[in-house]
Specification:
This protein is an alpha+beta fold and 116 residues long. The chain is built from two helices and five strands, in the order βββαββα.
Length: 116
């Protein structure tokens, strides 16, 4: 779901912000969300359906996805799905590098060792 860099986003291989997300709840009360990706390692260009589930937990995946979509509502539809708004009003894609940088900031401030 992360892309290598902003310049390497390819809508034929990476899920875009315009992807339709279907939210629901099972009869047992488990929340879920589904969306299609255009490409996967196992199916290639046939893509795949991604399903995430969670329980009543504010850090759970469905709640996190809803929060992400709400907090980044101004990211263009043709951007990657996991792009985020920046302080200057523009946007950046979630990449492995910026994700690790942010995690390391949090871990270091908590007295933990960073990942390289």
């Amino acid at each position: 779901m992360c892309i290598p860099s902003r310049n390497l986003f390819d809508p034929s291989r990476h899920v875009s912000n315009s992807a339709r997300i279907e939210y629901g709840t099972t009869t047992l009360g488990i929340r879920h969300a589904n969306f299609d990706i255009p490409w996967s390692k196992t199916t290639g260009t046939k893509g795949a359906k991604i399903t995430i589930t969670d329980i009543e937990d504010p850090t759970a995946s469905v709640a996190a996805l809803k929060h992400h979509k709400s907090a980044n509502a101004n990211v263009p539809h043709d951007a990657p799905m996991f792009a985020f708004e920046t302080a200057d009003g523009s946007w950046e894609p979630l990449t492995k590098m910026n994700w690790l940088e942010r995690c390391n900031q949090i871990w270091i401030s908590a007295g933990l060792e960073p990942l390289m």
